[in-house]
Design goal:
alpha/beta, GMP Synthetase, Chain A, domain 3, 2 domains, 6-stranded mixed sheet, 3-stranded mixed sheet, 9 helices
Length: 320
């Protein structure tokens, strides 16, 4: 079965972590083919996942209007004539309040260690802050790093230039050649500037192999992707009330029958997800099924896992 990702299997035997492969150890027939890994980092809410989706040209990461939607590292793949770019989408940097937050920050920071390029994403509609400066500091030591100023469509043209100048200074001292001059204004929502950004990235990638076959657009297994789609729909309907208290996991996969648990932390949160007469839960299921392969039968169950954000065994089971 396929998903909107294509055949969402990892390369080789499924146990290879491409981000750990050093660009200096690329194998295979190079023949002028360019490939490499690009980490996308930034504080929460800057639109990293929307940017990754826009660059890939298809949805490979869930999005929502709530900060902190991305909880684990994932990879999106751009295939072009003579090149392959593997984008590493990361959780947003933030001040952690529990073990989940600590693991998210660690996953984001660890994603820049073995990549060819780092993209530090900032929000044009917000002032540069400590979170942006911290994200930029993680790019130190990277072979190449850029600043991507996202959401430029939300800023009046006469106010954009000062924001671009401030953003470009984030990378001064962040790595070889990072002199503050490399700054890309884009709108992930409208697509403005995306083609130019991808074209520039390709020019900085080394010669190397094709890490993923054509048609592969993400390394996310289909079971995990389905759980994320359900979580996206939960956030769309209850995010203002419980944005960070919800997690989803698939507990039974016998296609086309899929059983997914929606985890909350307290009994009082269950009726928020279920809604009056079960209407909200039904709407979540219908919206999620609309993004799955035809014929899917999706059963949703709301379950309480007390303080799951602080429990290492639950976080590990959820892949965080």
């Amino acid at each position: 079965m396929t998903s909107p990702y294509g055949e969402v299997t990892s390369p080789s035997d499924g146990n290879v972590d491409p981000i750990a492969v050093s660009s200096s150890c690329h194998g295979g027939d190079r023949s002028g083919f360019r490939s490499g890994f690009v980490a996308v980092v930034g504080r929460t809410g800057v639109g990293k996942s929307t940017l990754v989706n826009a660059m890939v040209g298809r949805k490979v990461s869930i999005t929502s209007s709530r900060s902190g939607t991305t909880r684990a590292r994932l990879q999106g793949v751009i295939n072009g004539e003579g090149y392959q770019v593997v984008l590493v989408d990361t959780p947003g940097f933030h001040k952690p309040h529990n073990l989940l937050g600590e693991r998210q920050n660690a996953a984001a920071a660890g994603s820049v260690s073995s990549v060819d390029v780092v993209l530090v994403v900032v929000d044009a509609s917000r002032e540069i802050g400590p979170g942006d400066r911290f994200a930029a500091s993680t790019a130190r030591g990277a072979a190449k790093s850029f600043v991507v100023v996202n959401k430029v469509d939300r800023v009046a043209r006469h106010r954009l230039l000062p924001k671009l100048l401030a953003a470009s200074r984030l990378l001064v001292g962040a790595g070889d050649g990072a002199d503050g001059a490399e700054c890309f204004p884009v709108s992930a929502r409208s697509g403005a500037g995306i083609a130019e950004l991808v074209g520039s990235l390709v020019g900085f990638l080394p010669e190397g192999p094709r890490y993923y076959p054509d048609g592969i657009m993400s390394d996310v297994p289909e079971v995990a992707w389905t759980a994320e789609i359900v979580r996206e729909q939960v956030l769309a309907r209850v995010g203002d009330e419980l944005p960070h208290s919800v997690a989803c996991r698939i507990v039974d996969w016998d296609w086309p029958r899929v059983r997914c648990e929606i985890l909350v932390e307290r009994e009082s949160q269950k009726p928020i997800v279920i809604g009056a007469g079960g209407k909200r839960l039904k709407a979540i299921g219908e919206a999620a099924r609309g993004q799955l392969a035809p014929g899917a039968y999706l059963e949703l169950v709301v379950k309480v896992e007390r303080n799951w954000q602080k429990r290492p065994e639950i976080l590990s089971r959820l892949g965080y």
